[in-house]
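Practice record 12: protein with S-adenosyl-L-homocysteine.
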Amino acid sequence: MTQNFIKNILQKVNIGCTLDKTEIISLLSNGGNELLAVANDVRKKYLGNEIYLRALVEFSNYCYRTCYYCGLRSGNKNIQRYRMTEDEIVLLSNKAYNLGFKTIVLQSGEDMHYSIDELCRIIERIKKNDVALTLSIGEKSFDEYKQLKSAGADRYLLRIETTNKDLYQKYHPNMSYENRLRCLEDLKSLGYEVGTGSLIGLEGQTIEMIADDILFFKRINADMIGLGVFIPHPQTPLGETEAGDFDLALRAVAVTRLLLPDINIPATTAMETVRKNGRVMALSSGANVVMLNIADEFYKKNYNIYPDKSGVNQSLEQMLLELETSIKPIGYKISDSKGFRLGNY
Ligand code: SAH
């Protein structure tokens, strides 16, 4: 009975119909391998067999926020804080470019140390190479986003984390859900490619809330969606809660692909961290992007959002080799394009 119901929903997707909330909830709850396979078909139909690679530069782990789930939260004394200098960030980005990466992602905690002028200078220097540049540095004002865009930033990642306002407020003290939405709207209106996404498995989160998240991604026409499994970090208020369900996160990736067939969806590091082969599973279920951290071990180790992050002890060469070996059997190859959302460029 349930399986027939799932089949019918998936058939609707095949003939180009969109899905309503009840159907999304059914897929998130009971969609099996068939859901994952249909999502993979949709991905192949729209995006072919290429995987977009991004070079991730986590340039500072200072953060003045106190998000309940994140190991970078201010007040966590158990990590060694670091900040890369302007020259270090540019050198690392140049190294990535020389290795063939076509997108550089600059990510950090919300660190007020870097002025907008300094960030703009860094962006201008990196953009001397023919690369796309993504920022993931948190909430800023419209004018700040505007300056960063004028300096050459192409894309911005800012997860909504959860669209349930009560849950959002609970886990983000002194932050405002409305401001998060304002940021995403500003970024869209300024012409950034906008990435958002959610954490799957936060305590108190229901399947229905995840369905709402996916409908939100569709409503704002996000260009990229990153879905991470929640992993408890011992030095945070959520340290004793359960980790998120990998299979649910995988189904969420697949359903997101069905609703937004042409967007970019990373197979997130969190997916690989909670399940061996998790990245390849995500890439076979609708995801089409991989972000590789290109910094040295010291930085990777201390960008400690959650424990036991995958890839921390591996060299970049090892990570690239492992990625290439793992995607070959599933028929994918690494793209040499910048990997904008299809149709945007
Ligand atoms: N300061 C930036 C970047 C945040 S780090 C910003 O505000 O956008 C990137 C992502 O890591 C966050 O958006 C969050 O979804 C994820 N993250 C944080 N803690 C996590 C945890 N314990 N488990 C899984 N993902 C986590």
